[in-house]
Design a protein that fits this description.
Blueprint: E1 2-7, H1 11-27, E2 33-38, H2 45-54, E3 59-64, H3 70-80, E4 86-88, H4 100-108, E5 113-118, H5 126-143, E6 150-156, H6 158-166, H7 174-181, E7 185-190, H8 204-218, H9 221-249, H10 257-290, E8 297-302
Parallel strand pairs: 1-2, 1-4, 2-3, 5-7
Antiparallel strand pairs: 3-8, 4-6, 5-6
Helix pairs in contact: 1-2, 5-8
The structure holds uridine-5'-diphosphate and magnesium ion (MG).
Length: 304
Amino acid sequence: MSIVIPLYNEAQNLEKLLQELDIILNKEGIDKEFILIDDGSQDDTWMIIQQLANKGYPVKGLRFTRNFGKEAAIYAGLSKAEGNPVVVMDGDGQHPPSLIPQMLERWQKGSLIVEAFKKKRQPEPLWKRLCSELFYSLFRISTGLDLRTSTDFKLLDKKIVRAYLSLPERHRFFRGLIKWFGFPTEKVYFTPQSREKGFSSWSLKKLILFAWNSLVSFTIWPLRLLLLIGVTGILGSLILITQTLYYKLTGKALEGFSTIIILQLLLGSSILLGLGIVGEYVARVYEETKQRPIYVILEYFKSI
Ligand code: UDP
Ligand code: MG
């Protein structure tokens, strides 16, 4: 089994997690490799990864040149994974290793994907909760995929990993894409613990960017919305044109100054908004055609 763990400033949590994983997997008699990706951490994460390898844990250590984000780290980890199946989990202790035997059992019975679902969301500030509700609702409405309680904690058959790696796109949203494949998925449930140590690295800005990126790389629904606004606008204008002509013909043409101002403002701003949204998609095409690598490796070692 390969266990892929993306790490950004997790020096304080990593050793405990690996100890727990080691005990549980040894009990099950599972041959394993830990694929630890240091996503440009500023703390001692890389040093700890090296120490753990020296202590005899079967580790593949990957160090990015800078912070490329969790999605890139997961992708890099999956591309180094040689085991079957592959587990992806967080490095902060929020994804309980004790769930893995259960997931493995489902895999042995033939499931290609076993997803761990949150029984309930962990306690979090109100703004964060509202934002994520909004994001998941938008995502569900526009793509038909419900990700509300879904997590990145997954056990994947080698075939799924291969399929995931063979997708050509650069902007990736692991959770969404795995769901998008549509393979039958088994579920297991857990109640998330609060983070062991350190801080969640999601700032408001990072969260909004992540949400927007995931939405735009998954759905053209914002573009459709524009079309809808456009069509509604045209229908509205037809009414106004009729009214204006009527006034003109009956000699009451001077009125309607405020209507003009309102229309100007509305039209101007909706055109700008439209251009902006179209721009986002053009930018996406631009990013994808550049074909830049998803991450850059500074160091890589294999202790197995
Ligand atoms: N992570 C990462 N790169 C980043 C941000 C996070 O590799 O830029 C890792 C992090 O170390 C952890 C996992 O992704 O293992 C989940 O991150 P976090 O706990 O900050 O997110 P949350 O649990 O709040 O969603
Ligand atoms: Mg976390």
